[in-house]
Write a structure and sequence with these properties.
Layout (H helix, E strand, L loop, with lengths): L1 E5 L5 H10 L3 E5 L3 H8 L11 H8 L5 E4 L2 H4 L5 E4 L4 E2 L6 E2 L1 H13 L4 E5 L7 H14 L7 E5 L9 H7 L2 E5 L2 H14 L14 E3 L3 H31 L4 H8 L22 H6 L6 H25 L6 E5 L15 H9 L4 E5 L5 H6 L13 E4 L4 H4 L11 E4 L14 E3 L7
Parallel strand pairs: 1-2, 1-4, 2-3, 4-7, 7-8, 9-10, 11-12, 11-13, 13-14, 14-15
Antiparallel strand pairs: 5-6, 8-9
Helix pairs in contact: 1-3, 5-6, 9-12, 12-13
Length: 433
């Protein structure tokens, strides 16, 4: 097959590589000329995706994968077009911002030829595929969905850093607008993906047709919103436990020792492209979902809550030297999308602290580009807030933070014995002195 993948980001490029590795001709489309140039030079444009560089080094020179900024080069004659363009959410209104996806859909529709399967993999509010993308493509292309082309929603379900593993591990969900579209989507994804055996699943691992685009849209929103709500519940327990001298981690371990409890771990922040965003996409079509809204608001408030607790222990933070440990939204991943580092820094600055940031994955210049003053371990500091669960921080010792008067461990990863005698506030535990 000839396949076009629209948006060569941290999901789109590995997808294009996967399709190409399965024996198909793949053209990636991206508006970023630097990204396109890197791909065509067989150089990964971003670090951290396991096996990506090795695969690029084989596929690009062999002529099986290339990239372009020109839709007219990629879309005409394609058997399938897969779209992974980002969908943003307005921070103030929580309403989806379709600007980039609208632009991409218009561009592909201008060059769409009959016989193409169009698959949206970007997470969407329920009803978007049928009510927004189908009529927009039909209006611009002059073609009829279900006759001249087919549209399917098939959500990506992978994590950056392990995309190729996740593509094999998890069933591929599809939801089409017609029986024919479902059959074509089933055949397409079976031709481009391979699946691991999963005896734990209720049915064979592979392509799972959910019957409608709406069901597939809801499935992606539900699985991610579940995590946000679960983390919100864990954070609520952690705040209560810390106030009452209870170790919430021990409680969660006890609860999860039986098969009906699956409480997640609390933490100072929920970041990344998915969990902070998708509950808001869900709320855009189900605004009465109070449990979803409450959990999202609680998780978003955790940086402020932990900084306020630090202030309660230390007193006025004005003029203090503060460091936030970790800019990345999760350990081992060089990504700051919706990272809790931003509200944590803001909460400290609003109290008059002189704030610096440390992260082993980022250079000082990269931290400055993000708007932070870099910190070097060994420099004098008054208060430290551990934000990211990097492996390096598990062995963190007081000697690396000279003068520290309080460590706020927002991930519960530092060692109790190492920090004996040093004031420490650990999420879900009573503060120690």
């Amino acid at each position: 097959m000839r396949i076009a993948v629209v948006a060569m980001g941290k999901i789109g490029l590995p997808l294009a590589v996967q399709f190409s590795s399965s024996g198909h001709e793949v053209i990636g489309v991206d508006i970023n000329k630097d990204v396109v140039g890197a791909i065509n030079s067989a150089v990964e444009p971003f670090p951290g995706e396991r096996d990506l560089q090795e695969k690029l080094s084989n596929l690009v020179p062999a002529g099986r994968l290339r990239a372009t900024t020109d839709y007219s080069d990629a879309i005409p004659g394609a058997d399938a077009v897969v779209i992974v363009v980002p969908l943003f959410v307005n921070d103030e209104t929580w309403e989806p911002d379709f600007a980039w996806m609208d632009a991409a859909t218009r561009s592909l529709a201008e060059h769409l030829t009959p016989g193409t399967l169009v698959s949206y993999e970007t997470t969407l509010p329920v009803g978007t595929t049928r009510n927004r993308w189908k009529p927009l493509i039909e209006q611009i292309s002059g073609l009829a969905e279900g006759t001249d082309f087919d549209v399917v929603f098939s959500p990506e379900r992978v994590l950056t850093g392990r995309v190729f593993t996740d593509l094999r591990r998890y069933p591929k969900l599809i939801g089409a607008l017609s029986v024919q579209g479902a059959e074509r989507a089933q055949a397409f994804y079976e031709a481009v993906l391979q699946f691991d055996e999963r005896p734990d699943l209720p049915r064979s691992n592979g392509v799972w047709d959910l019957g409608t685009a709406e069901a597939a849209e809801l499935a992606k929103l539900a699985e991610t919103t579940y995590r946000d709500v679960n983390i919100g519940l864990a954070n609520q327990f952690a705040l209560f436990a810390g106030d009452n001298g209870i170790d919430v981690q021990a409680v969660i371990d006890a609860c999860n020792s039986q098969p009906y409890s699956h409480i997640h771990r609390p933490g100072i922040a929920v970041g990344g492209h998915c969990i902070p965003v998708y509950p808001r996409l869900y709320l855009s079509t189900d605004p009465g979902a109070d449990i979803v809204r409450t959990a999202r608001l609680l998780n978003a408030s955790m940086p402020e809550k932990l900084v306020a607790r630090a202030e309660g222990l230390l007193g006025d933070l004005g003029g203090t030297r503060a460091v936030v440990l970790g800019a990345a939204y999760r350990g081992g991943v060089k990504e700051t999308a919706f990272s809790g580092v931003f509200p944590t820094v803001e909460a400290l600055r609003s109290r008059g602290s002189r704030v610096t940031v440390h992260d082993p994955l980022y250079t000082d210049e990269e931290l400055r580009t993000l708007g932070f003053e870099p910190y070097t371990l060994g420099d004098e500091v008054d208060v430290a807030i551990l934000h990211t669960d990097h492996a390096d921080y598990r062995a963190l010792a007081p000697t690396q933070l000279p003068g520290v008067k309080l460590l706020v461990d927002g991930r519960n990863i530092t060692d109790d014995k190492t920090w004996t005698g040093v004031p420490r506030l650990v999420i879900g535990k009573a503060s120690s002195h």
